[in-house]
């Protein structure tokens, strides 16, 4: 078990590995999403300009996979941890699925956006809940302002969401844990370097991430097995 004192503040950074045991493919590695799709063709402002239907086809496919997925023990352990620690837990995920919420987490920062939300590509109308599958030959839906409705996702070349809140929480945390993330995508890959020397830094996943040297501890194994050991079932 991981000792957490009453003054500790815990920052958790999740990556695709947390949802792997729910059947949602990771991005890199065998069977990864980026083995079958080119990032610049489906997940970039350039892709949206060039072929918005292809972009919607990609996110509709991912909506289908995610809507069939169930939360796994890793999500449930983190939801329980929120109940125990309250505000002293900051849960930040790079995942766009809603499995943390399905497991009962209430305060999740989705720094790369949310798969089941859309927004206008032109005006500042807030993102809205949307689980439609926009598959051809459907037209790209339009906002009343005339703009096109796009997925509420942070694409490559765009700025992640919630960075002010995230850096404030990093500055306060005493325990930093990254789970199931390969440590190659910025800025998330550098969060551990931001807190190193000040917070206990822990990695959980089946293999060492690219930024492993910045962690004081690596617990190798699947999140669904390691997290119940660290935090209780
Ligand atoms: P990656 O696909 O790069 O890495 C997934 C990590 O999960 C790998 O290090 C695996 O070892 C690990 N893993 C696999 N199964 C696991 C399990 N059962 N338990 C724990 N870990 C496991 O995914 P991310 O690092 O999340 O961005 O990728 C970061 C970002 O790159 C994504 O949010 C996405 C992607 O391009 C956008 O789309 C903006």
TrEMBL record:
Ligand binding (substrate): 59, 62
SUPFAM superfamilies with a match to the protein in the record: DHS-like NAD/FAD-binding domain (SSF52467)
GO CC field: cytoplasm
Transferase found in the keyword field: yes
Residues annotated to bind Zn(2+): 120, 123, 143, 145
Domain of life the protein comes from: Bacteria
Enzyme Commission (EC) number: 2.3.1.286
GO MF terms held by the record: histone deacetylase activity, NAD-dependent; NAD+ binding; protein-malonyllysine demalonylase activity; protein-succinyllysine desuccinylase activity; zinc ion binding
Annotated ranges, domain Deacetylase sirtuin-type: 1-233
Recorded domain comment: 2 residues (Tyr-59 and Arg-62) present in a large hydrophobic pocket are probably involved in substrate specificity. They are important for desuccinylation activity, but dispensable for deacetylation activity.
This protein's name: NAD-dependent protein deacylase
Keywords: Cytoplasm, Hydrolase, Metal-binding, NAD, Transferase, Zinc
PANTHER family: NAD-DEPENDENT PROTEIN DEACYLASE, NAD-DEPENDENT PROTEIN DEACYLASE SIRTUIN-5, MITOCHONDRIAL-RELATED
Entry note: cofactor: Binds 1 zinc ion per subunit.
Cross-referenced Pfam families: SIR2 (PF02146)
Similarity comment: family membership: Belongs to the sirtuin family. Class III subfamily.
Gene designation per UniProt: cobB
Binding site for NAD(+): 15-34, 94-97, 180-182, 223
Subcellular location, principal: cytoplasm
Compartment(s): Cytoplasm
Cofactor: Zn(2+)
Function per UniProt: NAD-dependent lysine deacetylase and desuccinylase that specifically removes acetyl and succinyl groups on target proteins. Modulates the activities of several proteins which are inactive in their acylated form.
Annotated InterPro entries: DHS-like_NAD/FAD-binding_dom, NAD-dep_sirtuin_deacylases, Sirtuin, Sirtuin_cat_small_dom_sf, Sirtuin_class_III, Ssirtuin_cat_dom
Record's catalysed reaction(s): N(6)-succinyl-L-lysyl-[protein] + NAD(+) + H2O = 2''-O-succinyl-ADP-D-ribose + nicotinamide + L-lysyl-[protein]; N(6)-acetyl-L-lysyl-[protein] + NAD(+) + H2O = 2''-O-acetyl-ADP-D-ribose + nicotinamide + L-lysyl-[protein]
Residues annotated as the enzyme's active site: 112
């Amino acid at each position: 078990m991981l000792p957490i004192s009453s003054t500790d503040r815990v920052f958790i950074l999740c990556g695709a590995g947390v949802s792997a045991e729910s059947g949602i493919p990771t991005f890199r590695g065998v069977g990864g999403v980026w083995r079958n799709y080119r990032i610049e063709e489906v997940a970039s402002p350039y892709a949206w300009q060039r072929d918005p239907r292809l972009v919607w086809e990609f996110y509709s496919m991912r909506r289908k996979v995610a809507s069939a997925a169930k939360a796994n023990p890793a999500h449930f352990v983190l939801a329980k941890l929120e109940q125990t620690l309250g505000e002293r837990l900051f849960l930040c995920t790079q995942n766009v699925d809603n499995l943390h919420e399905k497991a009962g987490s209430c305060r999740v920062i989705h720094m790369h956006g949310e798969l089941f939300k859309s927004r206008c590509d032109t005006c500042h109308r807030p993102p809205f809940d949307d689980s439609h599958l926009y598959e051809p030959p459907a037209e790209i839906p339009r906002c009343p302002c005339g703009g096109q409705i796009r997925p509420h996702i942070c694409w490559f070349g765009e700025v992640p969401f919630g960075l002010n809140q995230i850096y404030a929480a990093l500055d306060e945390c005493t325990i930093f844990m990254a789970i199931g993330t390969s440590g190659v995508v910025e800025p998330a890959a550098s969060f551990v370097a931001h807190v190193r020397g000040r917070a206990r830094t822990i990695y959980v996943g089946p293999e060492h991430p690219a930024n492993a040297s910045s962690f004081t501890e690596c617990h190798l194994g699947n999140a669904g097995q390691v997290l119940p050991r660290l935090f209780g079932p």
